[in-house]
Design brief:
This protein is α+β, with helices and mostly antiparallel strands. It is built from three helices and three strands.
Length: 109
């Protein structure tokens, strides 16, 4: 069987990833042997405490923020959303998904 450069590189990468995953998988197998009831209960308690915390600290906003401009910038298939308020504050957010699917909705809404 003839092996080209692309196949050789892909097989090398796959082998390296598999070798690197062995310690991670063995850790998961060890964790499965522990009592799951106690870990689930403590995890639920931690999640409950996290959910009780406020997401937005309203005290940081003494006056309403009025959005003046909202721009969707694109370069080479990558998208950035830039927002400016009427008082000059600016915020930037990078798209984390394939925005080429969602940008019509973004623009129209």
């Amino acid at each position: 069987m003839k092996t080209d450069r692309r196949k050789f590189i892909s097989q090398s990468v796959a082998g390296g990833l598999a070798a690197g995953a062995i310690p991670w998988v063995s850790h998961i197998v060890k964790e499965k042997g522990k009592s799951r009831d106690s870990s689930i209960g403590s995890r639920d308690e931690k999640l409950g405490e996290i959910l009780k915390q406020p997401v937005l600290k309203k005290e940081l906003f003494t006056s309403p923020v009025i959005i003046e401009t909202l721009e969707l910038l694109e370069y080479d298939g990558r998208y950035i959303c830039r927002v400016r308020s009427s008082d000059g504050a600016e915020g930037i957010s990078v798209s984390h998904y394939d925005m080429s699917i969602f940008f019509p909705i973004f623009i129209k809404k």
